[in-house]
Amino acid sequence: MGTPLGFANVVADTPEAKRALLRERLRYIQQLELPIYYNFTKYAYHDILQKLALKVTVLEFVKKEREARLVKKEKDKDEEEKNVEDIF
Questions:
Q1: Interatomic CA distance for residues 33 and 50, integer angstroms
Q2: Local confidence band at 45 (pLDDT 50, 70, 90 cut-offs)
Q3: Can you give the chain as a three-state secondary structure string?
Q4: Which residue would you say has higher pLDDT here, 1 or 54?
Q5: Spatial separation of the C-alpha atoms in residues 4 and 14, rounded to whole Å
């Protein structure tokens, strides 16, 4: 277990910028819905890897689905044009 994803080495010009950066990182971590241990101060490395792997898998699946839909649309369009040509 370790400190939450780079919170120990935040570099910023001003304290306000540092707080803004920490808030941004915290929002990203909250989106991952990671389990938190020791009174919300530690994350397990394995949990982080699992969540990130799941996110990548979902993104790849969505990308493949979009590509498949585009191919299907193009194929349907070609068939429709062929049918129109056959009618005339």
A1: 11
A2: confident
A3: CECCCCHHHCCCCCHHHHHHHHHHHHHHHHHHCCCEECCCCEECHHHHHHHHHHHHHHHHHHHHHHHHHHHHHHHHHHHHHHHHHHHC
A4: 54
A5: 21
**pLDDT for residue 4 is more than 60:** no
The CA distance from 88 to 54, in Å, is: 51
* pTM of structure: 0.44
Strands 36-37 and 42-43: antiparallel
Q: How far apart are the first and last CA of the chain?
A: 71
Backbone angles phi, psi at 43, to 5 degrees: -125, 145
Q: Is residue 42 within 8 Å of 2, Cβ to Cβ?
A: yes
- Per-residue pLDDT, 76: 86
